[in-house]
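USER:
Try writing one entry.

ASSISTANT:
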Amino acid sequence: MTRFYSKNVEAEEMCGSICPKIRKKLNKNIDMSNNCTTLPAGQHIFHVKGMIGEYEVNIQKEECSCRAWQLSGIPCRHGAECLRYERIKPEVVVNKCYSIGAFKAAYGKVIMPCSDPRVWPRTNGPPVAP
């Protein structure tokens, strides 16, 4: 109950389109994408050379061969580099579940507190065992 209240208060203070923790992860991926080289291979398809390996990225399908983008819904460093190449804002392709609207929908409800069992109405039925 108190967690929902504190998350609701936190949601009211948020600004932007995605949650702050996701924004931090996205910014980290954007910073790490500086070490990547992008080679366009076709319409929305890229070949990305990183420090460790080479990856194929399809920004239209939001897929990377490293599979981090598909697993998390947040563009990986390779995807972030391709989005930069295409001049697309990375927050646009972040999964909708990380939006502030989804956060508010999850924590915006109120959980009503229960009164003490001693003040509950008495019934004539048999007692309920726990």
Observations:
- The chain has a mean pLDDT of 91.
- The first strand starts at residue 37 and ends at 42.
